[in-house]
Amino acid sequence: MLQRRLGDRTVSAIGLGGMPMSIEGRPDEDRSIATIHAALDAGVTLIDTADAYHLLAGEVGHNEELIARALRSYGADASEVLVATKGGHLRPGDGTWTQNGDPAYLKQAAKESATRLGVEAIGLYQFHRPDPRVPYADSIGALVELLEEGVIVRAGISNANVEQIDLADRLLDGRLVSVQNQFSPRFRSSLGELEHCASKGIAFLPWSPLGGIARSGELAANHEAFARVAEAHGVSVYQVTLAWELALAPVVIPIPGASRPESVRDSLGAADLALSADEIALLSQA
Fold first, then answer.
1. How confident is the model at residue 229 (pLDDT cuts 50, 70, 90)?
2. How far is CA 165 from the centre of its chain?
């Protein structure tokens, strides 16, 4: 599979987002683990999760624990898989999302994530979402301390603007390796952050790269150009969408969510789909 750089690591150009396996409408555990195993079989070496990927209030870390079980039960070597998790965004269990960027909380959350993942140090830990009650620099300071203490190996941020990207990278002394923002044909307002990451050589991980769990099925209907290109290549509109995102910059690593082996295998076909310059321009202007 096509590979890309994430800090000092080389990972698959398309990762696996674990969120759909743990929230509303989630599949049974056997199917989720089969989906993760299918991704690993196809060459995926980046899996994205978060402690907030759960359904009920008492399930914090549900997706982290699921991924850990899947990696342990995989019938081959999974030591090259980089698991990226996040902290600072909470789901109380009533359908709402809240933030907690308090440095002490983030440090404790990271240690608990490491325990759930069964690792001594988290391969990539990302501050999930800015907390308006806490100065951003204070939250990033927790990442600095986590790096220095060896709790995490690499640091990233999520849902950040250009100013926050530069501040985080400065406070981390140039060690910011990833930015995970929403980006898709439907949601393009993070294009500026994507381009900024490309200029700095920081990996950009689009979340909901197909438009979101509830909206991905609308891709073909709402984005005619993507449907036309998909038909011309004889592939799914999902493959075209991910191939277009990969073509935008060499730092882009989409992390589509999946809850069944068939969907993850289809998405990964995007890594081998070559779009022409005209097609990329058409989709970018659509």
1. very high
2. 16
Q: Which of 95, 147, 85 is nearest to 116 (CA)?
A: 85
Residue with tokens 């307002």: 189
pLDDT digits (tens, 9 = 90+) for 240-275: 999 999 999 999 999 999 999 999 999 999 999 999
The better pLDDT of the pair 56, 277 is held by: 277
Domain-by-domain residue ranges, the chain? 3-215+244-260
pLDDT, tens digit, 9 for 90 and up, residues 156-180: 999 999 999 999 999 999 999 999 9
Sign of the Cα torsion 177, 181, 186, 188 reads: negative
**Residue 42: how many CB atoms within 10 A of its CB?**
18
Q: Which CATH code for domain 3-215+244-260?
A: 3.20.20.100
Query: What are the residues whose beta carbons fall under 8 Å from the beta carbon of 98, sequence distance 6 or more?
Result: 89, 90, 91, 92
Is 53 a catalytic site residue? Answer: yes
Amino acid at 273: L
CA distance 20 to 278: 34
Structure tokens at 165: 């990207």
- DSSP structure class, residue 174: T
Structure tokens at 125: 């830990």
Q: CA 71, CA 51: separation in Å to the nearest integer?
A: 17
**Active-site hit among 53, 125, 136, 238:** 53
